[in-house]
Amino acid sequence: MDQALQNIVGGYNLELVETLADGNCQFDAVRHQLTSRFPDTCPSDVYTHEFVRSLAVNGVENMTKEQQDTFRGELIRDEKNKLDENASFESCLAKLGESGTWGNHHTLQAIANQLDQVFEKNVKIVVYNTIGDPMEVKTWDDSMGDPDESTVVTLRLAFVGEVHYYSTQPLGCAAKKRGRVDDDGGGSGSKRVALGSEKDGGPGDS
To answer: Are 144 and 122 in contact (CB under 8 A)?
Structure first.
């Protein structure tokens, strides 16, 4: 894991949670947030990273024409996607639906918009990163002011070098889990790293 990013999220009383490193990391990070924190609403047998990707596809499909054009342009410019410069929006949407196609800020917005309907609440996705202040994706218009926190579902991801997304969890969760495994005499294959600073008490919602 990236040490600089670990230090950053540690300042928010969080620790990184590793995700798939196969082009599905953004969707896997959202999956972890949903299934670990909202298991009743988002059960793990339904909310796989593939299902989260389908939320992104549906969300982009429901965006405005201007937003869709921007999404199309960015997907075409990403050489990893090997799309023709004249590729249609439909072709780009189909590409997004393929496992291994990287997500971006448009797909985060699309996912948030879809989750707004799932939770029947406002949704905010916070992305901690190594290049500046945390990025926020919201389902409400900032010009109207922020809604009451009790009406907001917040997901907290982390992003390093425009390369890889992690999920996060409250600081100490990994150590507690290791302690339970040690008590049971078992082993653990999870890739979680506890960080060492507290800043704002950490999120109760992620």
So the answer is: no
CA distance linking residue 52 with residue 46, whole number of Å: 9
* DSSP-derived 3-state class of residue 141: coil
Q: What is the pLDDT of residue 176?
A: 80
pLDDT at residue 190 in the model: 39
The whole-number pLDDT of residue 9 equals 98
- Strand locations in 67-205 (E): 122-129, 135-138, 152-160, 164-170
Residue 58 is encoded by which pair of tokens? Answer: 């549906």
Q: How far apart, in whole angstroms, are the C-alpha atoms of residue 14 and residue 156?
A: 9
Tell me whether strands 122-129 and 152-160 are parallel, antiparallel or unpaired: parallel
Residue 181 has what pLDDT?
53
Q: How far apart are CA 29 and CA 164, in angstroms?
A: 10
